[in-house]
Amino acid sequence: MVFGIGIDVVENDRISDAIRRHGQRFLERVFHSSEIDYCRSMADPTPHFAARFAAKEAVSKAFGTGFAQQVGWRDIEIRRRASGEPFVVLHGGAADLAKQLGIRAILVSLSHTKSCAVANALLMKVN
Which CATH fold would you assign to the domain 2-125? Predict the structure, then answer.
């Protein structure tokens, strides 16, 4: 059963500006070290940071909470399987909320161009 769906679009320049202005402090406030390492391994890291930023937003929207109260930026981690498929790992308040709500799976899809990134998320619940 579908619990919630979320989508987000981010302009890559917005993320680039945040990184330029706030540097490592911004990155560490929003992303896990594994996400930072992955994005920095790319020839152009910005679209990859933007896609993960959008995915975190999409997941928070699917919860119906946004980033408030229980769910923080680093409570949502976007990883990649060997196949390249992205998947979500929840931590802290988001993990607690998912357990409380009976969320059993989170599906996420990411895409990006030179100018923007988009992600959607689907939270699944067992009856």
Answer: Ribosomal Protein L22; Chain A (3.90.470)
